Amino acid sequence: MINRSESQNVSSSSIRLLTKILRMLVEEYGATQVLKSLEGIAEENSESIVNALQKTMPARRRKKLTAIQLVMKNAAENEKLTALLDLAERFEKKRFLPSLIHIREFLQSVGSEHTRLKDRSTAFSIVLKELMKLSPEQIDDLISSAAFHGPSELAVISEAIKAAADNLGRLEGEANFGHDQNDQES
User: Fold this and answer.
1) Does 100 lie in the same domain as 167?
2) Which one of 15, 29, 53, 72 is most buried, by most CB atoms within 10 A?
């Protein structure tokens, strides 16, 4: 059981070590899997890991919450938690709604108009409210579809090939222009 007195007695070097270990675990297994494991551990205790984390966060110096933290705060008891965490993790890695344009398109598709969006990180709270209105099946469809996931890897490659071809055509045109002038001088 994690309580406030225990967390305050932990040295700052121990906390840094814990943070490094958790960061490595998240990089290796993904935030969703690490959170599932932590929840499993927390179930053995009388207090959930989410409540423990919220109680130990200082009230004044809270930084802007990440997408994953927003999901944990707003949907901790929700049946869609795992799917929402998956989308939040994808959002943070820009594999879901990678730009404000994608966010606006998504919000329009679910019937919500927000034209004053300033940046992706603050927009996620609005996105999360709309995601929580969807059924679990709709969220699963959103995860499995390519909609709102940004350009595919093939699209990026296609654009690079097109740009290279355009550059090559321009270079060939410049080279031919030089030959045409030399022919006229002769």
Assistant:
1) no
2) 72
Which residues have a Cβ under 8 Å from the Cβ of 114 and sit 6 or more positions away? 104, 107, 123, 126
Domain count, the chain: 3
- CA of 39: how far to CAs of 51, 69, 73, 94, 181, in Å? 11, 14, 14, 26, 75
> Same domain, yes or no, for 5 and 26?
yes
C-alpha dihedral sign at 18, 19, 23, 24: negative
For the chain, the average pLDDT equals 77
End-to-end Cα spacing for the chain: 92
SS3 170: helix
Q: State the pLDDT at residue 16.
A: 86
Return the sign of the alpha-carbon dihedral for residues 28, 74, 86, 82.
positive
**Structural domain for 172, as ranges:** 152-186
The CA distance from 115 to 107, in Å, is 10
